[in-house]
Amino acid sequence: MRTGIYRLFAIISLLFLGTLAISPLKNLFSDWRKYQKEYNKLLAQQPMKTHPVSIGIKQIWAQELGNVDRCVSCHLGLSETALMGAYEPFKPHPGIYHDYEKIGCIVCHKGQGLATSTKEAMSRTEFWEEPILPREYVESSCGSCHKEENVPSAEHLNNGRKMIVGSSCAGCHVIEGFSKAFAPSLNGIGDKVNRQWLVDWLENPYNMKWNSRMPDFILSDQDSQALADFLMTFKEHGRKLESFPPALKIYKFDEKMIELGKARFREARCISCHTVDERGGPLASELGKIGSKVSPQWLYDFLKNPQAVQPEIPMPQYGFSESELEAVTAYMLTELIDWERVESDTTKAIPAFDRFEKGLALFNEYNCAGCHELDYPKVSRNMGPDLTFTGSKPLYELPLWPDSDRIELPSYILGKLENPRQYVGNLRMPKYDFTPGQAIDITVAMLAQTRQTFPVEYVVGRSQPLATQLKGHFGEIVRKYSCLSCHLVNGEGYLLATDLSFEGSQVQKQWLRNYFRLPYTIRPILTERMPNLYLTDEEIETLVEYFEMVLVNDTIDTIRMDLADIDMISTGRELFHEKYGCTSCHQIGGSGGYVGPPLDGVGSRLTSGWVYSWISNPQKYRPDSIEPNAGLTDAEAKAITVYLMSLK
Questions:
Q1: Against a cut of 0.90, is the pTM above it?
Q2: How far apart are CA 594 and CA 524, in angstroms?
Q3: Disulfide check for 486: which of 43, 212, 441, 497 has CB 3.0–4.6 Å away?
């Protein structure tokens, strides 16, 4: 009996000793030990001798972030610029804004920071669902702290966020921090569009407009017909229609009238925002076939006052005279039509009311009210899932798919964007015509939507505070012409064109007055966007006075210098052309580069204070400016300013 106990004790002891022996043996052949020995051999081969690393586990403890990671046990050359051509994991880290020794690695790259083997650190394991982010998605980590509109060095994240807004994802999903883009009201659509056009549009918007913001809901022909019949019953606009002019009631318009309309259409630069036969700006709808789409009454009303027909639409109201307005309407109705398929106008056809209820059901099922306004009591919203924390979605919550054991969150989101109805349990999401690059950018932005929180000092909010709504006559003009659809004023609006917050300190009063009368392109390589709005003299004076009195930077206005100093003009010319080679980017007298705006006549356009302040430190006023900070001395900056101001 006692012998058996001794034998059992001996066996257990041997097993225990064997277990103890395995641990150091496993450590002896670990990944990190192998890499550290390779790294020391690599250092020994370098011309500039560097101290070898000691063999052992290394880690970074980002105490404020609550992270510990041991990536540096293998990635040993992160700060060794001499190893730029080395192989992984010994390459130095690319230049970034953050100190990796302070914040660690996993805050940006994800992965299992405490792991000491390559597989556990980089891959999804049984108890760890966050493998290292693939390179194309790593910018998503920037979005955890950066909430501003343009995140430095994060092009994919910025593009993805813009695509989410532009595609109106927030129309169907709650996504904290995102709003939906403008979509036209459907009130009165039955008095607006040709029914056949509407059917074709519902069946596949991309066939009608290649860059359509509305996605393809993959409707059958029967569903498209039913939904069109439902929509065509809505004839009321919720407002009193303008009196339709007799000049537009005739069947055939006078040639001179059409020519006038064509001239005003071009002078107004409608193609700065709209495409005509796929040529022009991408900001608004295609106009090449609008004469086959809308009714004459609706087009006339819309051109006369866009906001009255479509509240909150970003299109400005043009200052056309009545005869010019009628002429532009006539031109668009007769020249901008679908010549390949001239449809009869079925706008006033009686819809099939037996399909009304089916159309209503489809309207609600596909959540059309998420984007479009329609005043009808039985219309309801049918929202999709909340996407605010998509980047933290557990894998077990993902719908089934053919290879569910190997699905990762980035590939799941990307798959939803490429083919949304491939997953079980979702048959409503429409198909967007995203390019592969756009789908990846949106995936990056969605992965940035996490539950992860950071100390407040790490979080970067909007780059500028939102301004209060603009008041008085100036505010009325800004709203009438939808200026904030393209421009920023103290953080309010959109930066599609110039930020006007300090415009009164930048440009001269008379130049601004002339520019409002007839806008022109300042930068030749950019698409001309500023339309000719046909402002009245009174409106121009109101804008100019407001710019000069309110939209100013007081520090710029205090700078004074002698602009008639001949010697200083000569010195500035030499500095500009010879020492700093500014003509590499700017043209003067037809000679120079095209990157920046031409500077002919700049002395009649800009103020001396602004020129001096800008060339001294461009990034102070526009952090994303590509204009280099040349490190000019005060004397050099003043000399170049005086020279440029001599270019009248």
A1: no
A2: 7
A3: 497
